[in-house]
User: What shape does this take?
Amino acid sequence: MDPAEFVEAYYDALRAGEPIAPFFAAEPTTVKFGISETLRGGEAVADGLREQTERTTEWRVESHDLVVGEREGWAYFTDEVFMAWTDTENGRYEFETRWSGALERRDGDWQFVAMHVSTPGEL
Assistant: This one.
């Protein structure tokens, strides 16, 4: 699987409500910045994503401009993504978002080592 296919597989897992924590490296330096949270370290990322999967449903993830670069053993990506989901405790959310991140090949498989998701701000 190449890095672009890996990112798309992550989007597919998110849409399907499948576990997404395995997409991230279990290293203390792994980080995921979300719209409203910062998760630092593989354990915190895994815990946060497990909680997210348990309390969210009806995901829409629409990629509009995925760009992926690859080097020997690592890759990076950017994308503009429309996201929507239902939080079972707080209702429905919808956002236009920007994504960026870094991936590293480990034992032949890609894993995210950094991800940043944000909403565009007004200037």
User: Anything to note?
Assistant: The two ends are 39 Å apart (CA to CA). Residues 3-16 form the longest helix (14 residues). Strands lie at 31-33, 38-40, 56-63, 67-71, 74-87, 91-106, 109-118.
